[in-house]
């Protein structure tokens, strides 16, 4: 069969792996299968994985008599489980390495060349060469070689960049604790879960995920969170230490602040005397946080785009038309005993081999224009898809805002009432106040290489006091059994003048009496669940300790004595939050003298954070980049939704969203707090307002309004933890939430990708703009990902902007829209060109004639290629309009436009063909009447008439389909296109009315063109230009655009009286059916063949 089909069968099986498996294997049970066939669950892209996609089983030897059968897909191993009689993902200890293999150029070349369109081009070139039509064949080969070379270079470059990014720190030497506390040097590739590794004091890049069991680490987790702020990781508490976290099994999510993640940078460690900083390996290889990130880049879900699907359907229609013409020409060839090879010409005429090059032209021009404004593209096909974006997700830190926060002011409380707001607390009068002491101590700052480092909010707050922080050195720490406390003290210039020392006073006692230092005895780290942090501190020379509390204003106020909280607290807080400020409240408590250092180390947090005294507010401002608000306003006017997805905390994110206009001041924010199922209780969602205290909720029931414009003024916000619970237990609610979800905070890298997929599932075209490695998966998964960094994120992102702000987003969408409209124009033009030439050739076949080689050459190169490459030059329209271009070719107006053009072209070519045969001067051609060796009957009146008529039709169709605003600049501003059209018109009119014998001989046309025939050709041109426009206007004035799923959902929710959920209410999940365990849910349902 392979020989009989000339190798085409092998190609067909390569393109259709499903057929290959079914043709070479027989069906059997999954248990006995040797080859598996996997079908993608993505409905729009049913990809099959057979022999070429790791579909074969492997056996892994365990102990002496047992084998485990598995197959590998997307760097994940699926194992056969006899108990459930199916495959499932299980932990498998292999080499601890995230391997990104760079395919060879030869392998990439074979994969590219075996594309169906390149095979068709090869067939066309062979056919044209056999028919001695070398010129156009050379042109097509030249364009194909350039296209293949460009594609190979781009793909190879992406693989190399990703490989270099992953391999940079993937293999390092590590110290591992063995039996009897022996320390052994080993390669990181040999690590397996359970190994105890020693973290070096000078820092390292983590080669795996590990949980800290002793000591403290300062870690830069920007690879995961995007926040370039070092965080402190503490050791996992032991059971029975008074910490609830110490009870129960280790969980990656719950014990995140004790976990060191792969790819993060350990800056420095702190340790006890005689103890090493140790961590237990919990995940390796592709199972780690970094491994999952790399997997999301390597194996993104396929992005669907209606244009390309419709283009293939349209091409199938052209193939069907070509088949009809082919059969017709075969019949004519047999009846008249002519050469059948010419019958194959009609296939290459109907399906133009130059179509890929023509479609690419507009994208290449758009890519060049993007490059001029500092936007670089590694996936040119995504430019078209960017023209459909109707929702853009933005990272916060470094994207919408500058890095970090700025202190706007403070507002202290004294005797239960607010003072006037002050710009800062750097004052001599406040240096010994509890307010400033709280600002100076209640933080998690540390010194790295002599520089203060930590959370931006803490850093700005501490810097505003002007105080000095001192930490114990490694030498000092090693002399004590416990970590030495951090000490803070004010600068000398803020202290009152020193009294004169009397001669009787001891020098040391005098210095001690003057010293004003506060030692931080214990820290209770910031908890996003509790929305607060607390420290215990002691002033030098004092016996009693103080507790200082900092956190969300509502939470802090609820922990304070009521008489210390001002009555206008809620109004003052609302005033600040409406202005977009980030407000932090402070509180203080004087501890009992019986609380010693040892007791403080073991006391419960809840006991410490009670009966506090309210101290006041700190008002922080997260400065937006100058361009942010204007760009978001432009997107809003263009009806493009904006969403914030960040690794930062919820309150900061909501504050920034209000500040930049993403959430208007009058709109409500509903926070969805989801809690997982626990102790037999179902998962549930608690709904609450973000910026209104609960006692004021009843005063502003805006969400109760259903009939006015206020009904739409609400937004949802949620954390990554809540998003995970909702995704697992509330699938029906998730789709409703993403319709109005505007702020997604504390999102892990994989959750950002899941959010993009959730938005795409309701038919949004999603863009993503970010600048960190944590955004890589989302940038790759989005329809249009834009990286503002040239580091890790640019490896995964289709677009990289050298301008470090979001002004690149509207520019990209405008260019995408222009490129998309250009693709529509070019595709319609190429389709019409094929049909027009098909009609001409079919009519000429009926009289055993055809177009001459140089007529084909003139049409294909001088008209078609010239017009295609110039009509694609229209730049993008200068502003972003609210309309979006159509996403597919299969729409009423578009099809009607194309069909009317076809009918008009067919009509006028037929009229010209018949008209010329009824003229008195017409001579019928026969082989005997040929006196000039015109064996192929090229130079005749029918040929000449159809050549001129079709040439005018090509030009008119190009003008008709070359659209301008509102997505592209008008065609009259595209001077190369205008000059080309005018030049070709002048040339055609000239040789038609004033024949030149040399040109007539070259083009093989009849020089005698009577006035009647010329009039028909001009009339055909005029009607071709205005006919379809008039008919389209008459028949398609009321255009109905099909609604996307998110539009249907929005309509349903607008009449739902229970939506949005009311604050302080709870939504509970339905209990899972019996036996539906997470393991069962994750098992892979597959069809197997052997």
TrEMBL record:
CDD domains: P-type_ATPase_cation. Gene3D superfamilies: Calcium-transporting ATPase, cytoplasmic domain N (3.40.1110.10), Calcium-transporting ATPase, cytoplasmic transduction domain A (2.70.150.10), Calcium-transporting ATPase, transmembrane domain (1.20.1110.10), HAD superfamily/HAD-like (3.40.50.1000). Its EC number is 7.6.2.16. It is found in: Early endosome membrane; Late endosome membrane; Recycling endosome membrane. Residues 2-44 form the P5B-type ATPase N-terminal domain. InterPro entries: ATPase_P-typ_cation-transptr_C, ATPase_P-typ_cyto_dom_N, ATPase_P-typ_P_site, ATPase_P-typ_TM_dom_sf, ATPase_P-typ_transduc_dom_A_sf, ATPase_P-type_domA, HAD-like_sf, HAD_sf. GO terms for cellular component: early endosome membrane; late endosome membrane; recycling endosome membrane. Residues 1081-1090 have a biased composition (Polar residues). GO terms for molecular function: ABC-type putrescine transporter activity; ATP binding; ATP hydrolysis activity; ATPase-coupled monoatomic cation transmembrane transporter activity; metal ion binding; P-type ion transporter activity. Keywords: ATP-binding, Endosome, Magnesium, Membrane, Metal-binding, Nucleotide-binding, Phosphoprotein, Signal, Translocase, Transmembrane, Transmembrane helix. GO terms for biological process: intracellular calcium ion homeostasis. Residues 854-999 form the Cation-transporting P-type ATPase C-terminal domain. It catalyses: putrescine(out) + ATP + H2O = putrescine(in) + ADP + phosphate + H(+). The chain crosses the membrane at residues 133-155, 311-334, 346-366, 820-848, 854-873, 894-916, 945-962, 974-996. Residues 230-249, 1057-1090 are annotated as: Disordered. Residues 174-297 form the P-type ATPase A domain. ATP-driven pump involved in endocytosis-dependent polyamine transport. Uses ATP as an energy source to transfer polyamine precursor putrescine from the endosomal compartment to the cytosol. PANTHER family: CATION-TRANSPORTING ATPASE-RELATED, POLYAMINE-TRANSPORTING ATPASE 13A3. This is Polyamine-transporting ATPase 13A3. It comes from Oncorhynchus kisutch. The lineage of its organism: Eukaryota, Metazoa, Chordata, Craniata, Vertebrata.
């Amino acid at each position: 069969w392979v020989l009989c089909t000339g190798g085409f069968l092998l190609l067909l099986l390569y393109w259709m792996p499903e057929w290959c498996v079914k043709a070479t294997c027989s069906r059997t049970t999954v248990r006995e299968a040797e080859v598996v066939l996997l079908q993608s669950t993505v409905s729009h892209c049913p990809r099959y994985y057979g022999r070429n996609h790791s579909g074969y089983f492997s056996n892994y030897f365990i102990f002496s008599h047992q084998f485990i059968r598995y197959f590998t897909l997307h760097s994940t191993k699926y194992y056969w489980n006899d108990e459930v009689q199916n495959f499932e993902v299980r932990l498998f200890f292999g080499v601890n390495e995230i391997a990104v293999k760079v395919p060879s150029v030869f392998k990439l070349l074979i994969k590219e060349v075996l594309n169906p369109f390149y095979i068709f081009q090869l067939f066309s070139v062979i056919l044209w060469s056999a028919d001695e039509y070398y010129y156009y064949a050379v042109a097509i080969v030249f364009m194909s070689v350039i296209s293949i070379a460009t594609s190979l270079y781009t793909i190879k470059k992406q693989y190399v960049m990703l490989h270099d990014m992953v391999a940079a720190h993937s293999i390092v030497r590590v110290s591992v604790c063995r039996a009897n506390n022996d320390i052994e040097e080993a390669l990181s590739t040999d690590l397996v879960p359970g190994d105890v590794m020693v973290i070096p004091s000078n820092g390292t890049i983590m080669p795996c995920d590990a949980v800290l069991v002793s000591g403290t680490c300062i870690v830069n987790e920007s690879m995961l969170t995007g926040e370039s702020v070092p965080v402190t990781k503490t050791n996992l508490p032991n059971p029975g230490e008074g910490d609830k976290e110490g009870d129960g099994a280790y969980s990656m999510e719950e014990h995140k602040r004790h976990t060191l993640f792969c790819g993060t940078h350990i800056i420095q460690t702190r340790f006890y005397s005689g103890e090493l900083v140790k961590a237990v390996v919990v995940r390796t290889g592709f199972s780690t946080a970094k491994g999952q990130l790399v997997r999301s880049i390597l194996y993104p879900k396929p992005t669907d785009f209606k244009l390309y699907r419709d283009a293939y359907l349209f091409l199938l229609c052209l193939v069907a038309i070509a088949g009809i013409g082919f059969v017709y020409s075969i019949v004519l060839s047999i009846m008249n005993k002519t050469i059948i090879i010419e019958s194959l010409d009609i296939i290459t005429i109907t399906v133009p081999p130059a179509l890929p090059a023509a479609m690419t032209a507009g994208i290449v021009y758009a890519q060049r224009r993007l490059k001029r404004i500092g936007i670089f593209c590694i996936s040119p096909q995504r430019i078209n898809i960017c023209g459909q974006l109707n929702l853009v997700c933005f990272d916060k830190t470094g994207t919408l805002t500058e890095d970090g926060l700025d202190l706007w002011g403070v507002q202290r409380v004294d005797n239960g009432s607010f003072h006037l707001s002050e710009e800062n607390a750097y004052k001599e009068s406040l240096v010994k106040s509890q307010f400033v002491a709280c600002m100076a101590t209640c933080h998690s700052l540390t010194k790295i290489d002599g520089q203060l480092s930590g959370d931006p909010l803490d850093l700005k707050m501490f810097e505003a006091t002007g105080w000095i922080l001192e930490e114990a050195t490694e030498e000092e720490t090693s002399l004590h059994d416990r970590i030495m406390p951090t000490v803070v003290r004010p600068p000398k210039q803020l202290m009152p003048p020193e009294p004169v020392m009397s001669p009787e006073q001891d020098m040391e006692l005098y210095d001690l009496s003057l010293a004003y230092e506060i030692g931080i005895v214990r820290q209770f780290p910031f908890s996003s669940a509790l929305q607060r942090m607390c420290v215990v501190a002691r002033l030098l020379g004092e016996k009693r300790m103080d507790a200082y509390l900092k956190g969300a204003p509502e939470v802090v106020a609820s922990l304070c004595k009521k008489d210390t909280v001002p009555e206008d607290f809620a109004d003052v807080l609302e005033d600040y939050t409406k202005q977009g400020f980030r407000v932090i409240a402070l509180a203080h408590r004087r501890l009992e003298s019986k609380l010693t250092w040892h007791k403080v180390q073991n006391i419960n947090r809840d006991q410490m954070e009670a009966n506090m005294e309210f101290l006041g507010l700190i008002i922080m401002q997260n400065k937006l980049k100058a361009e942010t608000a204007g760009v978001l306003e432009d997107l809003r006017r263009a009806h493009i939704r904006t969403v914030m997805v960040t690794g930062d905390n919820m309150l900061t994110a909501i504050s920034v969203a209000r500040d930049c206009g993403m959430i208007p001041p009058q709109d409500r924010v509903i926070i969805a707090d989801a809690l997982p199922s626990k102790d037999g209780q179902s998962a549930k969602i608690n709904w609450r307002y973000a910026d209104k205290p609960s006692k004021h909720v009843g005063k502003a029931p805006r969400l109760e309004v259903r009939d006015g414009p206020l009904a739409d003024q609400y937004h949802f916000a949620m954390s990554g933890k809540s998003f995970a619970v909702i995704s697992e237990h509330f699938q029906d609610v998730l789709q409703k939430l993403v319709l109005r979800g505007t702020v997604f905070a504390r999102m892990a890298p994989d959750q950002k990708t899941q959010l993009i997929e959730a938005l795409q599932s309701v038919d949004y075209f999603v863009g993503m703009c970010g600048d960190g490695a944590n955004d890589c998966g989302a940038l790759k998964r989005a329809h249009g990902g834009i990286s503002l960094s040239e580091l890790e994120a640019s490896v995964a992102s289709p677009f990289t902007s050298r301008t470090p702000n979001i002004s690149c987003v509207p520019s990209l969408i405008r260019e995408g829209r222009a490129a998309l409209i250009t693709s529509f124009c070019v595709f319609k033009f190429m389709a019409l060109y094929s049909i027009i030439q098909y009609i001409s050739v079919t009519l000429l076949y009926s009289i055993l004639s055809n177009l001459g080689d140089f007529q084909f050459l003139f049409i294909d190169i001088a008209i078609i290629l010239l017009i295609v490459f110039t009509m694609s030059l229209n730049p993008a329209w200068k502003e972003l309009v609210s309309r979006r271009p159509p996403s597919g070719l299969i729409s009423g107006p578009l099809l009607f436009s194309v069909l009317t053009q076809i009918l008009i072209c067919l009509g006028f070519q037929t009229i010209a063909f018949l008209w010329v045969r009824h003229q008195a001067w017409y001579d019928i051609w026969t082989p005997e009447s040929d006196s000039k060796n015109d064996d192929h009957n090229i130079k005749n009146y029918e040929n000449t008439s159809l050549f001129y008529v079709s040439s005018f039709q090509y030009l008119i169709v190009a003008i008709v389909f070359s659209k301008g605003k509102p997505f592209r600049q008008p065609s009259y501003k595209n001077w190369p296109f205008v000059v080309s059209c005018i030049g070709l018109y002048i040339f055609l009119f000239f040789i038609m009315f004033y024949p030149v014998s040399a040109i007539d001989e070259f083009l093989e046309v009849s020089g005698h063109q009577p006035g009647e025939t010329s009039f028909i050709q001009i009339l055909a041109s005029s009607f071709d230009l205005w006919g379809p426009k008039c008919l389209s206007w008459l028949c398609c004035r009321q255009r109905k655009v099909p609604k996307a799923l998110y539009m249907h959902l929005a309509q349903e929710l607008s009449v739902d009286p229970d939506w949005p959920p009311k604050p302080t209410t709870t939504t509970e999940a339905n209990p899972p059916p019996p036996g539906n365990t997470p393991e069962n849910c994750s098992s892979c349902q597959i069809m197997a063949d052997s």
